[in-house]
Automatic annotation (TrEMBL):
May play the central regulatory role in sporulation. It may be an element of the effector pathway responsible for the activation of sporulation genes in response to nutritional stress. Spo0A may act in concert with spo0H (a sigma factor) to control the expression of some genes that are critical to the sporulation process. Residues 131-230 bind DNA. The keyword Lyase does not apply. It comes from Enterocloster hominis. This is Stage 0 sporulation protein A homolog. Residues 131-230 form the OmpR/PhoB-type domain. Residues 5-118 form the Response regulatory domain.
Length: 232
């Protein structure tokens, strides 16, 4: 099976060359674009599997590119940007980005994010029957039965905790912002909801991340949101 086709949108030629060299070295197929107009054209013409997107483009803001692509495609978009403020990350993720990498980044980090996104692409191709059960390490969710297990122990979750767990599981490896989670769980995103979210996430993590030596399933991105990690 061929590795995914990746569209690299980066106007800084040195960074563009660095990223494409990394991709070429690891046998990824790729396309490049130096501005927003080229990015939209390449994305619509070639339908890449993954987009690596810089936000600071010369002709438009990268967030606008995310919004445009999201009007017609769910292709994964990984932002690679020097903007490291929480508000910038939240804006990009809420616009529809799947992940956010801050410059400067390591080769290992970029490859890890690509592997995680590739796994999600593979998982999305599974049949509905396969999707009826989610497995990640020792964590198992049986959607039809409405129950979850950790190893051979059934987890006793409240309805909200179960909904949160399912939401994270269906987006494994992807950062979900506070706003997105609150809208999915409560249908709103007020100040009281974020306080409730933190309480429910804390109790959920105690139940599935209870072992000090065991894998940590839920990663907190302070000021941004949460991500379920893929456990091998």
């Amino acid at each position: 099976m061929n590795k995914p086709l990746i569209l690299v949108v980066e106007d800084d030629r040195s960074v563009n060359n660095l990223i494409t060299t990394i991709l070429k070295t690891h046998d990824y197929r790729y396309l490049t674009a130096l501005n927003g107009a080229e990015a939209v054209l390449e994305a619509s013409s070639h339908n890449p599997d993954i987009v690596l997107l810089d936000l600071g483009l010369p002709d438009t803001d990268g967030v606008d590119i995310i919004k445009k692509i999201r009007t017609w495609s769910n292709m994964p978009i990984i932002v690679i940007s020097a903007r490291n403020e929480d508000k910038d990350k939240i804006e990009a993720l809420d616009a529809g980005a799947d992940d956010y990498v801050t410059k400067p980044f390591s080769v290992e980090e970029l490859l890890a994010r690509l592997r995680a996104t590739t796994r999600r692409l593979s998982a999305s191709g599974q049949t509905q029957a396969e999707d009826a059960v989610f497995e990640n390490g020792e964590l198992r969710i049986e959607y039809a039965a409405g129950c979850a297990w950790l190893g051979d122990k059934e987890l006793h979750l409240t309805p909200i905790e179960y909904k949160l767990l399912c939401l994270l599981a269906r987006n494994v490896g992807k950062v979900l912002t506070h706003t997105y989670i609150m809208q999915q769980i409560w249908g709103s995103s007020g100040a009281s909801d974020i306080a409730s979210l933190r309480v429910f996430m804390a109790t959920l993590r105690k139940k599935i991340d209870s072992s000090v030596d065991g894998p940590q399933y839920i990663q907190t991105h302070i000021g941004v949101g949460y991500r379920m990690m893929k456990v091998e």
